[in-house]
Model the fold of this input.
Amino acid sequence: MRKDFYFYFIFLMLTGISPVKAQTEPALDDGYYLIENAEHLKWFRDKVNSTTVVDAESDDRKISTISAKLTADVELSGNWTPIGAYHGEPDIAYAGTFDGQGHTISGLTVNEISGRESYGLFGYIWKGSVKNLGIVNSTIKGTDYVGSICGMLGNGTIDNCFSTATVIGTDADSQVGGLSGGLRKTSIIKNSYNAGTVTATGSGSPSVGGISGYIGSESLVKNCYNAGMLSAVSEEAAIGGITGNDYSGNSTLSLTKAGEEAGLINCYYLEGTGSGVQAQALSASDFVTTINSGLFGGDNTYWQGTASVANDQLLIPTFQEDYTVQIPSSPTAIDKVADVANNIRVLDGRICITTSETVSMRIVNFAGQAVRNVQLSAGYNEVSGLPEGLYIVTLNDGTRSKVLIR
Done:
């Protein structure tokens, strides 16, 4: 018996057949790798990151066009290296189609990696697309460009996706968003939402957005909402319910690849989670009405349940079950400015300021736009005529306060 086994083992060695082989490579069906577990997803990542194909448009960018579908929910463990890299040496870009098919990825843990600037499930998507995917029970932490789905989206699409992950940008000027750190060129995010916490801990001028940290001049965000809390440490941070910085209104090339104007279209955020000019703040009850009336204009096949409000909690649909969001008692999600100082207060829709000397005052909204620049005389002063919303009042004596006009 032992002799037979010996000859069998020699046969396997000579023929190159391994008696035991870990099955990490997923099956390929009609051009898509079928990913059913964490090992498959890691194999897919390594396949993309090891591409040797040079993009015809740029010698500094390698590109991978392979595609994949999730056939089950995937639970990861340990630290995750993102798929693709923006501002790498060279850039590694994902240009395929990644279809979650209504499944989720959980346990996605991303931490800072030396020499890397882009963080998320994907580091860099260029002309690629991610759709029908949820990121849950995950934490993504990085430096320059940070999001749950991807760090940087360029000429790509995110469609029918959601995140409940915690996303943290640590660099002084991080671009951090619930779904994507940044949008370049004719990128599109549509029919998607964020319900996770998005935070910038850097001390410079970071941009924080519920959907994307910033939106480029030709990019589009459509049919999206944010119900996640946003915050930043720096007083110079730009924070918005949908995006921290929106450059889409500055472009002479105002049409995206889908033939629609760039910018924010039909976007909302839960009142108290952020601010914005082109997006609309909604109370919890209005949020429920908007979601249930068919906010998402795309394929609704995977969304389950309806939105509702109970006991100061907002329930919103995901792919499998409702997700609970705590409703803010007041718009205090933006924590980068101290509470109102004793000499600055709001009374009947007016900002009232008492000062012992002549000072200059600047008022900006939470989209970062200056709405008033005035000289105040010593004593009591009032500013009226501002619409409802959150504002930062800054005096040149160093006083800086956050005020809410209802």
